[in-house]
Amino acid sequence: MNQRVAQSSNPLLTNDSGEHSHRVALTTQKTAIITKQMICMFIILGTFPLWSEWVGLYNYLGAEIAIWIIYALGFNLLLGYTGLPSFGHGAFFGIGAYAYGLTQLGIIESVWAGIFFSVLAGGIAAAVVACFISHRRGIYYALMTIAFGQIFWFTSMRWHTLTGGEDGLLNIHRGELNLGFFSFSLSETSSLFYFIFAIVMLVTVGLWRLVHSPYGKALQAIRMNEMRARFLGYNVWLIKWSVFMISGAIAGLAGGLFALVQQSAYPDVMSLHASGLIVMLTLIGGGFVSYWGPVLGAIVFFMARDTLGAMTETWLLWYGLMFMLVIIFKPEGIAGLWQDLMKRREKRQLKVNGSTENASGEAK
Amino acid sequence: MDILINLLPHIVNGLSLGLLFGLIALGFMLIVGVMELINLAHGSLFALGAYFAMTIINPDLSSWGAIGAWYVSLPLGFRYFLGLVIGAFLVALVGMGLEVCMRRTYGKKAEYGLLLTFGAALVIEETIRITWGSGEQFLPVPKMMSGAFIAGDMIYSTYRFYAAGFGAFMIFVVWLFLEKTPFGAMIKAGAHDSEMVRALGVNLTRLRLYVFAFGALLAAIAGIILTPIWGLRPHVGVDVVIPAFLIIVLGGIGSFWGAIIAGVLVGLVVAIVGAYASQWSLMSMYILLIVVLTFRTRGLLGKKSTLEN
Amino acid sequence: MFEKRTIQSLKTLLAAGAIVTLGAGVIANTAFAAPVPLVIGFTSDSSGQYANSGASDRRGMLMAIDEFNAKGGVLGRMIKTVHMDTETTPATGSRVAERVIAREKVGFLIGAVSSGVANAISQVAQSHGVVYLNTNSSSPTESGKNCHRVKFVWDGNGANFAQAAIKNSIGAYGKDVLLVTNDYVWGHNTSDATRKLVLANGANIIDEILVPQGTRDFSSVLLKIQQLKPQVIAVAVGGDDLKAMRSQIAQLGLGDKYAWVNNQQDWPDVYGLPADNLFGVFGTTWYYGMELPGVDTFVTKYQKAYPDNKMKVPGNVFYNGYWATRSLLETIERVGTTNNHAVIKGLEKLRIPAEARMQNHDAWMNAKTHQMQQTIYLATRNANPTSDDDMFTMLSYAAPEKVADSGAEATCELESFADTPVYTP
Fold first, then answer.
1. Are the Cβ atoms of A319 and B122 closer than 8 angstroms?
2. Which of A103, A216, B41, C247 could form a cystine bridge with A211, CB 3.0-4.6 A?
3. Is the Cβ of A264 closer than 8 Å to some Cβ of chain C?
């Protein structure tokens, strides 16, 4: 116990040193770097441009879904794993988008520099906000994030010499992606999609490692019971602060990519409504019960919006009703539904196995 | 001295605005306090109340012949009263329906309840759009209450003062109800300890139903009273739910007077900032909240609540 | 939609049959190879702040398209429409534009109320070379800083309306001008245009009250106005903020107490409100009560097309949507192709006689800014209305040259044709 207290006084350190930390053995169960589900998702998503047109979808939608997968995975680190509801996360997404645009328009036309600054800006903004809220929980936490989100939103609207206000920051060129040995143009949405997809893979694998590291266990301990986590020797404040910052940096990354795809940045992504969407789709997907919840949520949300939106002008009514039904009857979301299905199948298989054994026994 | 004379009208204005904010927050406060549920549909119920009242006050009765003509010829004040009562009552029924939907989320994470009401808000807003169209509507005000009065150099809206007065009255009524009736005592007990209430043999299911209906009723009343000031459109709910939320947290969850004081405080701050640095008026609410919550963990008069977990 | 198309190809068949010189084989050919319909994408908002104006906009576009379809479409092709809600949100605007271009293969995009959404759509449209008509967003930046080769703007903008109103008001009411400005880009652009005009006319600005977007309570602003005692108040407040402000001014009866100069009042925003909600003078491009030839027929046509609509008469938003669409289709007929470069060149030379457009002066497209130059009207509340719908009185009108947005040409840099992808839907 003593040893634990001493080491966990800086849980970030364990995170940084990752696998090499000797705390791993204490808290982490071994998991593969790449899992079956990951490969499955990478294959489906990675081949999207090949079959999208065939099923009536289009590459831009794919790129947007991929970006929101990144955003939602980062968000779920906070909501699902640590149990901290942030209702102002759109702010960091928006800050990332502006940082990307301002880098391109004001500093240097480089995709990498843009992404670097969007991650940095999202992370710094989140780190500042986290200083005010990391000793909070529950509703007060949620409300403080709303208040900060609104302040960022107002600022982006008001500071129009920098952000272009509601007209947005325009003419952000997609440009060339320089990979050192060769470079290719991102002006086609399909090539852009593959670039974003590569980042989705990195984020998915990276976050999977993170949640299965000691740091990830600490997050879950805080979600279960903050008090107990503190008694266990975790520096709860620092962990909450850092997870908010990481989540904000990932939101910034997603926002930067969105500015790249949309070739512009607008304040709307920072509005309370947009911040609500990320919570909504993470939960619909099942972020509380599965790592894959946010991925499913992003896919379902954008698909539903696209198909319902083309069919009826009142799509929000149908979407709202669907959403209510999910919350009432299956609050664990799509991932929860899937898990139930798997469990049922397992049970059935057990039964079947059992009966075949009997059968074979009789035959003998 | 000059500054004071200049400031005075804004203080008066801020107080009236604060009472209106208090009125907006009442229904929200009741539901948060008793059920520990953040009702994001509060704004939509607010709007729905106003739309119902509008339809009752000025219905389209062209196909009803003589009865229609007779109804429209009734004095506006009477129809307005009918609109207020029936509109609020209908919204209370909608609130009951919503509460029935909520039942499966009790005992689960607070986020689920919050998200369910978020979905309900979408549904109500879209239903309003389909039924009444997306255009701007208005609620006529009885002659006696409309117009303006002059105080010194300033012109104030008469209706606004009636509305603020009514806000104060409603605050008083709700306070009386909570403090002086057995039902109120039950609600207050339920707010702090649902186990206890159940042990006392109170039907908790029914209590929740009534509380939700009452909260919806108060939202509708606020909507009907505020519409002549803010105007009416399907998405008006968004303008309402955020200040309500903010006031409750600023005042402290579970505290009646905390919310009222917070409402008045927000009204004063918004009005005074609005007069001297108007571009900051909306932002000032949020800054106030952050400042207060940074120094007072549970808002002004907050009590411990399970929503903190 | 498919059934409609079949009927139309039958019509084509009959028309072909009437031409005696054509052989039966040719007729059968026309019937089987019915020309591919031309798809037009509607990108106006149906939810959010501008839902109501968006619906009115759409009705205007549809009426123009129905007229063309009734006489056999454009260049012999029937016109199909697709619509998706842009939600008054730029991110959705981008996606919707990408979607309808990629999936529905739209030939043209029409519709906008919010300038952010218009910007998002026009960037996508420019990168694909799809001609886009901004029907109703009146931000000066639309035909200035954010102009595009493929985008054409059909509404008068803040600068036009200020030109029409400011000089008159200063002359009539006095030189102490107060600005009340919505604290966002449209508000600032409009108030800048006003400020220049005020100073150019020898008047002075006593103060500027900035109102944040999303303000619902204007009481402190109105009290401040009373303390400042201005002679003229130039208002650049838009959207829902203006709606709330309007009802609060009406309550105080301040509408008649000051000389308000209100940039623009969109018909769908004021329709059905009590008369005292309209305050001061304001700009518009068209009103159904104007005594000009053709107006009555136009109104009747509207009422026939939309008998059940709550809005009994067409307004400026409808008018802009209708004329943008009609002019586009007429231009396609004139240039004889749907090739985007040809259509753009055709639109740049567009000139419509006053009688046809039911305005007092000829209207023409400014080839440098892509903004329609048209008569700007000043209107005020009608004190003696003949019916509930008769809300405006027209005070005066100004020729397009007199109210031209002088700043636009300096800031607008259209992409060259070489940089605009060729697109032939």
1. yes
2. A216
3. yes
Q: Which of C49, C220, C257 lies at the smallest CB-CB distance from B13?
A: C220
In a domain, C19, yes or no: no
C119/C134 Cα distance (integer angstroms): 9
Do the Cβ atoms of C115 and A263 come within 8 Å? Answer: no
Q: Which positions in chain C touch B155 (Cβ < 8 Å)?
A: 226, 252-254, 257
User: What residues are paired with C377 via a beta bridge?
Assistant: C284, C397
- Reported as a pLDDT band with limits 50, 70 and 90, residue C294 is very high
Residue C2 lies in a domain: no
**A174 — phi, psi (to 5°)?**
-70, -35
Asked if B271 is an interface residue toward chain C (Cβ–Cβ < 8 A), one would say: yes
- At B307 the pLDDT is 66
Same-domain check for residues C274 and C310: no
What order do you get walking across the sheet with C372-373 strand by strand?
C351-352, C363-365, C372-373
Helix (H, G, I), strand (E, B) or coil at C40: strand
Q: Is the reported ipTM for this assembly greater than 0.90?
A: no
Q: Pick from C223, C180, C242: which is nearest to B13 by CA?
A: C223
**pLDDT grade, residue A15 (50/70/90)?**
very low
Architecture in CATH of A2-314: Orthogonal Bundle (1.10)
Neighbours of C388 (CB within 10 A): 10
Pairing of β C372-373 and β C79-83: unpaired
For B135, half-sphere exposure in the C-beta direction (CA atoms, 13 angstrom radius) is: 17
SS3 state at A176: strand
Residue A361's pLDDT band (boundaries 50, 70, 90)? very low
More confident residue, C8 or A72: A72
Q: In terms of domains, do C326 and C313 share one? A: yes
pLDDT in tens, C355-411: 999 999 999 999 999 999 999 999 999 988 888 889 999 999 999 999 998 888 899
Question: Domain range holding C185?
Answer: 159-284+376-406
Are both C188 and C87 inside the same structural domain? no
Mean pLDDT of A338-346: 87
Best CA proximity match to C315, nearest among C268, C273, C356, C382: C268
Same domain, C148 and C222: no
Whether the predicted pLDDT of C1 surpasses 60? no
- Does residue C312 sit in the same domain as residue C386? no
Within-domain flag for C66: yes
Q: Is the pLDDT of residue A52 over 80?
A: yes
- Give the H or E element holding residue C151: strand C151-153
Domains held by chain C: number: 2
A 10 A CB-CB count for A155 gives 16
| Contact (CB<8Å) C244/B230 | yes
Q: Quick one: average pLDDT of A192-218? A: 93
**Which residue segments constitute the domains of chain B, with CATH numbers given?**
2-308 (1.10.3470)
Residues C302 and C234 reside in one and the same domain: no
Residue B10 touches partner C, C-beta closer than 8 Å: yes
Pairwise CB contact (< 8 Å): C247 & B275? no
Give the mean pLDDT of C70-88: 91
Across the interface, do C224 and B270 touch by the CB < 8 Å criterion? Answer: no
Q: Which tokens sit at B129?
A: 């759009």
pLDDT digit string (tens) for C149-208? 999 999 998 889 888 888 888 888 889 999 999 888 888 888 888 998 899 988 999 999
Return the structure tokens found at C265. Answer: 């009042």
**CATH number assigned to the domain comprising residue C122:** 3.40.50.2300
Q: What is the pLDDT of residues C309-359, one digit of tens each?
A: 889 999 999 999 999 999 999 999 999 999 999 999 999 999 999 999 999
Are residue C263 and residue C402 in the same domain, yes or no? Answer: yes
Residue of A84, A313, A328, A329 best to disrupt the B interface, most CBs of B under 10 A: A328
Q: Which of A53, A61, A164 sits opposite C99 (nearest CB)?
A: A61
The answer to whether the CB atoms of C141 and A167 lie below 8 A apart is yes
- Domain annotation covers residue C198: yes
Chains that touch C (3 or more CB pairs under 8 A): A, B
How does pLDDT run across B165-194, given as a tens digit for each residue? 999 999 999 999 888 888 787 777 765 566
Contact status of C55 with chain B (Cβ, < 8 Å) = yes
Per the CB < 8 Å rule, is B160 touching C310? no
